[in-house]
């Protein structure tokens, strides 16, 4: 029996927090197991000055880590589910999805010298500047407040907070999960309800990818799977796959389990926020993947098809498959 495993991870603060968390959970189960981290720079880490929607390509934050798995330079890869494409290279699979953190988006405003800090989205003054590179976020915010100015904001979480504090934006929107994991929860002035900002597919959940045929590793990590989160995130991911969601289209979905029923909301919007097609569906957990497909079909029949065609006719169709952040 092997007594050492290697975790492949990105080197960002959030990625390392998540990899260290998985390591400590495994260490609780297997005190004598030796666990090493292999930090890997991904394309998404290298290209920092271009909005991801413009970079294109599949799995910008996972591809190099997957290659390490296939070369046996890592045994498991720890990812934010939000960054994981719906298709995997041959020989790899998503074995585990851990319990979800807060899936919602968070509003963080600039600490100002004036008496009042803008503490929520509704109170933003006319024409205020919001930092986000996510089409999903800008589409939804612009649909409520077309007067807002959206400015590009990329980089790791600490970089984004620094840019906010430097005064480039009145507020920024980040996933609550990442902000909380890094211990900055007190900077969140408002958690955006899903009617304002429906989260990204998989937001707040951590996934573990590994080689399909590595029985030892699959058995080792199986106890970390959280069945409820797994059901919900898989429903969201079939929704995304059915929509062939690239990162160039605003797409959002959130599924949750309440009283043994799956409740799922989803939307597809135009980049400008002029059009948003929303839907809701419910069903039983055993039918979760069907629920995701049905919701996608519902949106496609009510106008999402036209939005997707419009975007992809202007772009290279090969970008399909990248997750929508
Ligand atoms: N797009 C990058 C990314 N990938 C996962 C998270 C947050 C953590 C999570 O969703 O689990 C973030 C940052 C953000 O969107 O603010």
From TrEMBL:
UniProt cofactor(s): dipyrromethane
One of the record's GO molecular function terms: hydroxymethylbilane synthase activity
Family under the similarity heading: Belongs to the HMBS family.
Cofactor note: Binds 1 dipyrromethane group covalently.
Pathway recorded for this protein: Porphyrin-containing compound metabolism; protoporphyrin-IX biosynthesis; coproporphyrinogen-III from 5-aminolevulinate: step 2/4
Signal peptide from the UniProt entry: none
Entry keyword Transferase: yes
Oligomeric form and interacting partners: Monomer.
Catalytic activity of the protein: 4 porphobilinogen + H2O = hydroxymethylbilane + 4 NH4(+)
Keyword hit for Transferase: yes
InterPro entries: HemC, Porphobilin_deaminase_cofac_BS, Porphobilin_deaminase_N, Porphobilinogen_deaminase_C, Porphobilinogen_deaminase_C_sf
Record domain Porphobilinogen deaminase C-terminal: where: 231-300
NCBIfam families: hemC (TIGR00212)
Annotated Gene Ontology cellular component terms: cytoplasm
Function: Tetrapolymerization of the monopyrrole PBG into the hydroxymethylbilane pre-uroporphyrinogen in several discrete steps.
EC assignment: 2.5.1.61
GO-annotated biological processes: protoporphyrinogen IX biosynthetic process
Other facts noted in the record for this chain: The porphobilinogen subunits are added to the dipyrromethane group.
Keywords: Porphyrin biosynthesis, Transferase
Catalytic class of the enzyme: transferase
Gene of this entry: hemC
The protein, known as: Porphobilinogen deaminase
Domain Porphobilinogen deaminase N-terminal: 5-218
Organism whose genome encodes this protein: Dissulfurispira thermophila
Modified positions (S-(dipyrrolylmethanemethyl)cysteine) in chain numbering: 247
